[in-house]
Structure formats: C-alpha cells, structure tokens
Amino acid sequence: MTDRPDLELNKCAAAAALTPPARQLHRWALTAFAETGHAPSRADLERMARDHGIDPDLVLAELTGRDVLAVDEQGKIRAAYPFSPVPTRHRVTWDGSAGVYAMCAIDALGISAMLGLPVTITSTEPGTNHSVTVQVDHHKAGWEPETAVVFAGSTADTCCPSVDRTCSHINFFTTPKAAHDWAASNPAITGVFLDQDQALTNAIVEFGALMQPINQ
C-alpha cells in the first residue's frame, strides 16, 4: 500500500491509440450508454458498425484488446468504462438523465469532465455502507462528508481486464482512517490512497478527453 498520487491511468491513452473505425464505434457506445443509462447490446454494436461500413468483429476485438470495452463470452458488454451495465456502489445522475452506474470511484469522478456537465455521485463505503456524495462540475467538486477520500486498489493479476483487476477495488471512503483500515484488512488488494484533489485530477486525466471528436 502507498500514498503516492501517481495512479496508473490508461483509458484516454488507450482510446487515442484506436483506429478511426474503432474510435467511432467506441464513442457511439459511450454516447448510447449516457443517453439511455443502459449498455448497447452486441446486436446494436454490430448493426451500428455495419451501417458505417465497419467490420464489427475486428473492431470489437480491438476495443476489448485495448480494454476500453469488456465483454463476456456471448459478447455482452461487461464494462464500457466509465459506465457499468450492472448496479455498482457508484450511481451518477445529472439533469434530465436516467442515471448510470460507474465502474468505480475514479470512473464516477471522471464522468462530468467526459460529458461536459455537472453530475451527482452517490456511493457507499465498503464494509460499512456509509454514504459518500460528491457533486462534480468538471474540475470542481463538493464532497460529503468533507473528510471523504478514495482508495484505488487492484489485484496482483495484470493479465485480466480492468473490470476484473481494479474496478471493484477503487472506492470512496468517509475518512482516511476508514480507507487505511479497509486496506489493512484486505492485504491481497494493493493500491494508492488519494485525497479529493488527487482523485478528481486522476479522473479528469483518465476520462476527460474520452468523448472528444476523433480528429482532436
């Protein structure tokens, strides 16, 4: 365990390295998720790809290979970072939205910058289910309780996608002590302790540019 703020980030960098067809389908999937609150189906993705002259199998293989999407054995989306297709601790809402679940605390904090609008995050602390609420407007955030922090942990398995390696271990805690106590009681999970500014900065770096037009 460590208090270093230099959390390894990769989703914006991974998306930037996609081929244009893969980047196009990726942005469409994220847009559909944000607008509906639900993951597009495999059939939706294949139809959108073919409508734009894109080979769906090749593009989906690229998206999962870069770990910007994760799918199960049937091709159903397990993760479209920062969005989760199933309920998690981290619910994110904004005006006029159906709301979404985020894969982890950092993902939740990055959604405002990614979508360019203010959001409300409601989450719970592992072990106690104490509530943490964060009002985020891009680079500004108000935290309740004011002592809340983030622990960003991961397993030792570096060969699996983020959905299995890190997502369930990156969480909000009500106090630094609560985060350290949880980490001490879960020694198989290693990671970094992030204060509020560090957590939000990392989130913006990882997700802020994810929806930028392809030519930027």
Description:
The chain is α+β, with helices and mostly antiparallel strands and 216 residues long. The protein has two domains: 12-81, Winged helix-like DNA-binding domain superfamily/Winged helix DNA-binding domain (Arc Repressor Mutant, subunit A, Orthogonal Bundle); 84-207, Beta-Lactamase (2-Layer Sandwich). It contains eight helices and eleven strands. The protein has helices at residues 11-16, 20-36, 42-51, 56-65, 105-115, 162-165, 176-185, 196-207, and strands spanning 70-71, 77-79, 83-84, 90-93, 100-102, 119-124, 131-137, 140-144, 149-154, 170-173, 190-194. The strands form three sheets. A six-stranded antiparallel sheet has the order 3-5-4-6-7-8. Strands 10-9-11 form a three-stranded antiparallel sheet. Helix 2 (20-36) crosses helix 4 and helix 5 packs across helix 8 (196-207). The longest helix is centred in the first third of the chain and has 17 residues, at 20-36. The model is unreliable at 1-8 (pLDDT under 50).
Draw up the topology in text.
Layout: H1 11-16, H2 20-36, H3 42-51, H4 56-65, E1 70-71, E2 77-79, E3 83-84, E4 90-93, E5 100-102, H5 105-115, E6 119-124, E7 131-137, E8 140-144, E9 149-154, H6 162-165, E10 170-173, H7 176-185, E11 190-194, H8 196-207
Antiparallel strand pairs: 1-2, 3-5, 4-5, 4-6, 6-7, 7-8, 9-10, 9-11
Helix pairs in contact: 2-4, 5-8
